[in-house]
Structure formats: structure tokens, C-alpha cells
């Protein structure tokens, strides 16, 4: 099915010019390819920027980082190809020959939204989650919540070499706190102040990431402070806690607690999440 | 209102969802564009069995050909619908494809290899639900009233469809192709003859224009299509990711988790969580694993089966194809079936 030419005396190129002129008058459709190219390029650069500045560690599990930077390179390539095509079409005076398409937004809105959000991404620096998110996600409710079956469980690991997450996994496999009493602990994490335990305890916690920041979940163990209350260690401060394991009853529940002998302030690690 | 800190967290979540989803969206858009320009869907659609239930099952199994998550399968489903696929096949594909494919199977196996029943029940339940919902939708042989007008316009006209399909004989003969052409705006091909040609012309669709052109011409067409779909679906993805991040930060998750121990409420809680978290099906099994110790097996399955079918992010994507009424039907049917099957697992397995 074709559309009959309304003015048969006009040549094809005259009709094309007339239609182009009309289109320009009606809207800014000629801007569309340019905004498309800018939006695609901006997202490509943003993905590569997250990767090159290591901010990607705050957003994704390391296993998926290659996907993000591959997509970044791909988007840049796509923007370059589209630019060449656009310039060639402009030179030849052709309009884009696209298959039928449909959209929720008017086309210009979508690209502008994509471009604007990418620009905002350059301005906004992602922040690793901290104790407020941990409390919201229920670290105090489910201190031993973790993978049901540890993927890399090494029972031979000496207690003082276990990371916080390895402790949680060990506990998950054999949850009797008394089994660990007297073992040495040497773990790193950030401080959470929970209202549900006394002031001379804090929770030392890590976030575990399995895919992206949408699924990070906190795991933690209560720490009994050697002296005073927890106000000396504000929430979100990163600490190395050394001590030994004891069993105490907190919140009417017998559980494993680190009886701290020393707490050392450490800088926030480059990769704030554990895996 | 969100505090500054919550806003920061919501934005971090938002960009995390975007960074995670964009590669899969790209994959989906690439597959979709390749399908348009290099594969004759007509043959695919023609090979589908006539029986609505078998068509729905076939549509569900086609997911194996497209290893993409739900951000990617919507454009493919949209393409199938535009090419005149039976409604049961299109709906079956839409619901099953995010889960019934090798990548998701492998990811779920990695996460739940100690509970293989979760892996097989996930795939089995998804196939069952997608086929049943597809079958239900087959009573509406013409999907048009349920689709966005923009999609309807790109579909082959009723009379063309009626001619090409003996199963759909109740076409509206009052509307002719020429009427539609006069009323519609559209995309035109220039320089291919003495007259411009409508690309969304039913006659041209039926001969699949792109396939008749040389490869050197098809690649620019594919490029155009990739950019278009990326733009459209990217815009919707932004909306979905924004809503998901705000809800995830603003709603206290303890409330959701508190429901998790009971046979019934655990299923409802995990279905709600699946909806809220809007995580890609290729990676959601790892997310579900973090609840494995606190939630019932049935509720984990509900999360893994229902999430890829319907979630906040994906509702926004579905909205680019369907009207609200159809999305509500899909949601209610999928939710009821998921709930019933998960309840059976909780009670008897």
C-alpha cells in the first residue's frame, strides 16, 4: 500500500523538501537524532566513568562489572555509528529510514529524560550504604541471615582469620553459640547502634552484595565493649575488632557475642561490600 | 518525605538498578532488532500450533532462544504481537521468556544447587502459569482492545489478519486498508521508487520489507531500530527504577520481613517483595538466596516465579505495549496461579 502523491507535478526531491520544511515548522524533530546520540554517548561515558573511578563497586557485584563496562563501550560505539549515519543522511538530505515504532512518551521526551538523568549521574556520587539502611533492612532482627548453603565454606579456617561474613556463614551451618566460646575473633566492619541492645554493646556489620545495590543485605555480630558505652564509636565508623567469642543473652536470645579486647579505627575499604 | 540521607540512598539504588539493567536492556534490544531484520517472525509465528494451549506452551518455550531478562523480553514480545502472533503465544512468551532460558536456569542452579527442587519447580511453574495465562488470553483472539494505540497502529490491519489466519475470521470488514492509510501518520521509506512507501503498511509487513533488502541496507535499519527501542525502553526503565528505589528506601523492610514465617503470609510477602525490588531474572535467584534461611521454600519460589513476570520496573515496560486493563488481567492471573502453586509447595513438599 502506498500513499498517492497529492501533487503529481512535483518532483520527488521537491516533495521531500516541502515535507522537510513542514516538519521543521511543526516541531523540532530534527533535534531528535542529536539528543539520541547525546543520551546514548552520555550513558556510555557514565558507565565507563563508574568503572574507571571504581564507583562501580558501590553499585554492582564484581561479577557483573564486565557487563557494565562492555555496555559502556558498546553505547559509545553505537553513538559513534549513529553520528556517522546522521551526518551522512544530513549531507544527502535524507530522513531516517526507520521501521515502525511506538512509544509511551513522545520521542523527544524519552531521549531528553535519558540524557538529563545521565548528566545528573555525572554530578551525583553514589555512596555506599551505611547503618541507617542496615537498621531499615533488619540487621538486628536477623543477625544470622545469610546464604542457606555457603558457597565457599572452609571449616579449616583459623577462627582469628575468619572475616565477619565467614563467621556468619559458620554460624549458619552450626548455630550453637557455645561451640565457639573462647575462639579468637578479628573482624572488620562498620558500627551500628541498635536500640535493642544495651549501651555497652554495638553491632559490627558488613553488607553482602549478590548482584547490585538493590539486594545488599547486612550481616553483623554484637560486640561487648571493654569499657564505657558505645558513644565513643559513632555509627558508620569502620573498626577492626579483636577479642574472643562468648555467649550472652541479648533480646531474650542466646547468641554469639564478640567480647572485644581492642577496637581500632580503620579507613573505609575501597570495596565496602563483602561477597 | 525522604531525608537527605534517604534521598542519597535512593539515588544510589536507582543508579545501581540502571547500571545493572542497561546491559540486559541492550541485549534485549539487539535481539529484538535482529529478530525484526534478520529473522522472519512470520515463519516463527506460522510454525506455532493452532491449538491455543499448545501455542501458549510454544510461546513459553521460545524463551530458550532469547536469553534475556524481563527488561529485554518486552521489546521481543511487542515485536511478535506486531507481527501478528496469536495472543496465547505472545502472552506465553511474555511471561515465560524471562525465566525459561539457559542463562536464568544456570544462575538459579548456581544459587540453589543444594535445593535442586527450587530450580526445576521454578522453570516448571513458570511454564505452567505462562501457558495457562496464555490460554486464558486466547479467548481474546484479537489483542487490539488491550494494546496501546501506538502498538495497534503498527499491527497488520484486521482484514489482512483475517485473510492470513483462518482462526481469526471475525475481522471488522468495515475498515479497509486505504481508510487506515488515510487516517494514519507513519514512517515512510523514501528513494525506493517513484513514491514514498509506508513502512508500517500491512502489505509491506506481510512481505517483510527488511528481509528483501541487501545486508548493507539492513544494518543501518537495525541501527535505527536499536536506537529507537533503546530510547523508548530506556525512558520507561528510568521511571520504573525510580519508583522501585523510592519504595525500597521509604518502606520499612522489617514490615515485609515480619510476615515471612507463616505458610501464607510468607508467600504474599515474597510476592510483594518481588514486585517492589524489581530485580532482573538473571540475578534474582542470588537475591532470593539471602532469604533462604528465613523464608519458606514456597515463598522463595513465589518470588522467583512471580518477580520476572510482574514487577514495578516491568509494569512500566509492559505499559509501553498494553493498556492498563490488560496489565491488571496479567497481574491478577499470574499472582493467583503463583500463590496457589506456592501454597501447594508449602503444604505438601
TrEMBL record, chain A:
The keyword Kinase does not apply. Keywords: Membrane, Transmembrane, Transmembrane helix. The chain crosses the membrane at residues 28-52, 64-81, 102-124. The keyword Disulfide bond does not apply. It comes from the Bacteria. Residues 37-139, 172-275 form the DUF1980 domain. This is TIGR03943 family protein.
UniProtKB/TrEMBL annotation, chain B:
The keyword Transmembrane helix applies. GO terms for cellular component: plasma membrane. It is found in: Cell membrane. Residues 157-169 have a biased composition (Low complexity). Residues 154-174 are annotated as: Disordered. The chain crosses the membrane at residues 12-39, 51-68, 88-107, 119-137, 233-251, 263-280, 286-306, 327-348. Its main location: membrane. Belongs to the UPF0718 family. This is Permease.
Amino acid at each position: 500500500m502506498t500513499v498517492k502523491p497529492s501533487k503529481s507535478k512535483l518532483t520527488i526531491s521537491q516533495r521531500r523538501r516541502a515535507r522537510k520544511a513542514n516538519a521543521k515548522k511543526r516541531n523540532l524533530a530534527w533535534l531528535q537524532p542529536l539528543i539520541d546520540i547525546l543520551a546514548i554517548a552520555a550513558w556510555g561515558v557514565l558507565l565507563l566513568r563508574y568503572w574507571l573511578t571504581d564507583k562501580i563497586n558501590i553499585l554492582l557485584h564484581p561479577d557483573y562489572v564486565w557487563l557494565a563496562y562492555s555496555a559502556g563501550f558498546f553505547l559509545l560505539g553505537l553513538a559513534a555509528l549513529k553520528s556517522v549515519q546522521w551526518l551522512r543522511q544530513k549531507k544527502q538530505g535524507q530522513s531516517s529510514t526507520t521501521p515502525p515504532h511506538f512509544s509511551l512518551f513522545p520521542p523527544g521526551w524519552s531521549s531528553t529524560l535519558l540524557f538529563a538523568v545521565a548528566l545528573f549521574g555525572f554530578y551525583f556520587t553514589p555512596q555506599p550504604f551505611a547503618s541507617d539502611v542496615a537498621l531499615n533492612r533488619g540487621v538486628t532482627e536477623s543477625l544470622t541471615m545469610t546464604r542457606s548453603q555457603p558457597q565457599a565454606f572452609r571449616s579449616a579456617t583459623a577462627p582469628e582469620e575468619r572475616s565477619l561474613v565467614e563467621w556468619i556463614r559458620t554460624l549458619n551451618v552450626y548455630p550453637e553459640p557455645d561451640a565457639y566460646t573462647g575462639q579468637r575473633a578479628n573482624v572488620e566492619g562498620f558500627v551500628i547502634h541498635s536500640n535493642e541492645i544495651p549501651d555497652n554493646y554495638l553491632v559490627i556489620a558488613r553488607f553482602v552484595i549478590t548482584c547490585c545495590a538493590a539486594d545488599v543485605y547486612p550481616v553483623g555480630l554484637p560486640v561487648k565493649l571493654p569499657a564505657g558505652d558505645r558513644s565513643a564509636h559513632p555509627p558508620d565508623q569502620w573498626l577492626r575488632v579483636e577479642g574472643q567469642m562468648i555467649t550472652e543473652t541479648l533480646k531474650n536470645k542466646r547468641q554469639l557475642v564478640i567480647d572485644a579486647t581492642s577496637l581500632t579505627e580503620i579507613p573505609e575499604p575501597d570495596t565496602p561490600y563483602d561477597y | 518525605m525522604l531525608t537527605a540521607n534517604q534521598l542519597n540512598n535512593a539515588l544510589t539504588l536507582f543508579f545501581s538498578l540502571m547500571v545493572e539493567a542497561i546491559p540486559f536492556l541492550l541485549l534485549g534490544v539487539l535481539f529484538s532488532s535482529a529478530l525484526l531484520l534478520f529473522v522472519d517472525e512470520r515463519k516463527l509465528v506460522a510454525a506455532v500450533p493452532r491449538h491455543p494451549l499448545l501455542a501458549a506452551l510454544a510461546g513459553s518455550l521460545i524463551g530458550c532462544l532469547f536469553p534475556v531478562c524481563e527488561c529485554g523480553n518486552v521489546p521481543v514480545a511487542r515485536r511478535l504481537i506486531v507481527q501478528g502472533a496469536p495472543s496465547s503465544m505472545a502472552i506465553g512468551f511474555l511471561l515465560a521468556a524471562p525465566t525459561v532460558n539457559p542463562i536464568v536456569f544456570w544462575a538459579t542452579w548456581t544459587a540453589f544447587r543444594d535445593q535442586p527442587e527450587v530450580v526445576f519447580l521454578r522453570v516448571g511453574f513458570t511454564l505452567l502459569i505462562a501457558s495457562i495465562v496464555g490460554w486464558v488470553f486466547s479467548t481474546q483472539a484479537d489483542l487490539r482492545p488491550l494494546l496501546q494505540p501506538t502498538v495497534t497502529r503498527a499491527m497488520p490491519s484486521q482484514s489482512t489478519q483475517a485473510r492470513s489466519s483462518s482462526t481469526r475470521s471475525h475481522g471488522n470488514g468495515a475498515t479497509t486498508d486505504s481508510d487506515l492509510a488515510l487516517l494514519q501518520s507513519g514512517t515512510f521509506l523514501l528513494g525506493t521508487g517513484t513514491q514514498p512507501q509506508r513502512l508500517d503498511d500491512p502489505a509491506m509487513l506481510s512481505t517483510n520489507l527488511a528481509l528483501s533488502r541487501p545486508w548493507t541496507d539492513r544494518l543501518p535499519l537495525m541501527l535505527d531500530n536499536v536506537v529507537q527501542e533503546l530510547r523508548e525502553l530506556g525512558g520507561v526503565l528510568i521511571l520504573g527504577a525510580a519508583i522501585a528505589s523510592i519504595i525500597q528506601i521509604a518502606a520499612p523492610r522489617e514490615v515485609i520481613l515480619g510476615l515471612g514465617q507463616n505458610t501464607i503470609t510468607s508467600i504474599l510477602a515474597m510476592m510483594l517483595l518481588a514486585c517492589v525490588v524489581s530485580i532482573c531474572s538473571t540475578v534474582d535467584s542470588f537475591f532470593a538466596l539471602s532469604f533462604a534461611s528465613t523464608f519458606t521454600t514456597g515463598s522463595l519460589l513465589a518470588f522467583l516465579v512471580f518477580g520476572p513476570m510482574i514487577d514495578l520496573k516491568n509494569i512500566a515496560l509492559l505499559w509501553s505495549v498494553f493498556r492498563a486493563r490488560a496489565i491488571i488481567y496479567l497481574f491478577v492471573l499470574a499472582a493467583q496461579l503463583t500463590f496457589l502453586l506456592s501454597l501447594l509447595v508449602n503444604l505438601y513438599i
